[in-house]
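REQUEST FORM: STRUCTURE PREDICTION
Request ID: SP-0412
Submitted by: Lab K.M.
Chain count: 1
Length (residues): 340
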Amino acid sequence: MADDTRTPAQADQQRNDEARKGKPKVVASDDLKSLAQAQRPRGALGRIKAEGENPRADRPGALPMPHRRSVSAYTPAPAIERWNADAAGVRAVEYGDNVITMFGPIGEDFWTGEGVTAKRVTAQLRAIGQRPAEVHINSFGGDMFEGIAIFNVLREHPQDVTIKVLGMAASAASIITMAGNRVEIGAASFIMIHNCSVMGGGNRHDFAELAAFLAPFDQAMADVYAERTGIDAKTIAKMMDDETYMSGSAAIEKGFADALLSAEKTKVDEAAKAADHQVNELRAMELQLVASGMSRSDARARIKKIKGTPGAALDTDATPGAGADDWLSDAAGLLSTIRS
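STATUS: Completed
RESULT:
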């Protein structure tokens, strides 16, 4: 017998063609396929896994990382203010040893020395090991590019990843949410999507170059949202243009989440809420000062001077008479002046 010069794919195709010979074509097959696709649950990525299949097959593809790490994308102040009003301090009632918490800003946080980073998430996943992971998110967002890196880290976890939105998953945090095999969201929680937002300076050529640099990332994010939800990418892009907030039920209806999270599984930590409000005054003030024309370093130096402490991190355990009330009052006044 002569050597078979066909590739394995060609051989498989020929066998399939031969097997189909003489069999009548089912006229309604295309209609049945369309009907089955239409009845697929919103928010469920891919088909139901068989035992032993790779959970990563149910997640969107990896997102591109920027070649210019000198550019940082930050959540605008209005989103922080809404998080303050609706989501600050929301936590889960119970935690397991396979839970990763993402409370607060995405990326290194100058004001607390904390923040959610890809490096920290990688270490936590390594500790969880070959087990399903659960991610609790309550974040207004932060550095979009750090959010992309965290998304890529989570989607590579070899076991199922369940993401629970406890208060808000806005901006960069909404991207991270898309890395879950399953997404649960509180009825009073929100998911917010928008275009990549940055602050910068320069002439028109600099801004034209920056716009061209950002466009592929907005498109990549729109593609991930579209893959998860089944909504076409153009409609998603318009939602991003409009900076769209979705409550729990709306997020499920549109396919961004799979199920409601029981209210009994969440609580409001009043101490955490107070600390969140305090440090967010600093973050909002920093953004306002930068928007007024200051460099980020100058804005932080000005705030630190008003704050009256030698370090950057906020002392959330300040005692009465230690000056915390005084600097917060001064900071609030400055912020009000800037906004007006």
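NOTES: Residues 19-50, 316-325 have pLDDT under 50 and may be disordered.
Reviewed by: T.R.
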